[in-house]
Amino acid sequence: MNWFKKKTYPDFWNQYITHFKSKQTKDLDTIRFVVFDTETTGLDIKKDRILSIGTIAVFDSVIKVSDSFECYVKQELFNSETVKIHGLLKEGINIKLNEQEAVIQFLEHIENAVLVAHHAAFDVAMINQALKRLDLPKLKNKVLDTGHLFNKTKLDTTKVHFSLDHLSERFNIPQHDRHTASGDAYITAVLFVKLISVLKKRNTRLTLDDLLRSNNRIGLL
Fold first, then answer.
1. pLDDT tens-digit profile of 181-201?
2. 165 near 175, Cβ under 8 Å?
3. How far is CA 107 from CA 76, 95, 98, 132, 140, in A?
């Protein structure tokens, strides 16, 4: 019947999903993790927009500076209050992409990597909203939250949520370029490596399933 047509997607999305056809390894030493962060115009997932995306890969507990990505996004919205945090002006000197091109480049970079972020639900939701505006499905990548990983260490059970600043101080991680997407991605990557080290000391057979367990697929909003 003419009223029923199979939904088609653009080539860049089809290329992205091909990376998920093969079963992913669960061995932490052979998984490509991509730690990422977004800077945004605010905290309203539906109304606010992404200003910049920064990533850095981790493989076999080594931070791969050469395997990183950074982009700035043209601002449809402008919130002068958030400039105090991220320092990104509406115009500025940085070369900026439109949202679609930023999403395309982000997908090309991450492929089927396991994504890592601090308070991952927000960053993933912002990416998913950008995908929704392009009439595309949500991210397919598995997601880890360094806040949840810290809770798994049971080093501090006084509360559930810990800020990146708090954990950076606890693990003696310098806060260079804090509140930039690339800077926060790097800080989070260092934190991630340290947390994995702590968890491996307690479980020498630690796998991806162990890290994902009880996370309730956090971040895939």
1. 999 999 999 999 999 999 999
2. yes
3. 21, 19, 15, 14, 10
Instruction: Please state whether the predicted TM-score (pTM) of the whole model is above 0.85.
Output: yes
CATH number of 28-212, picked from 1.20.1250.20, 3.40.190.10, 3.30.420.10, 1.10.579.10: 3.30.420.10
Q: What is the mean pLDDT of residues 87-99?
A: 67
d(CA 91, CA 95): 9
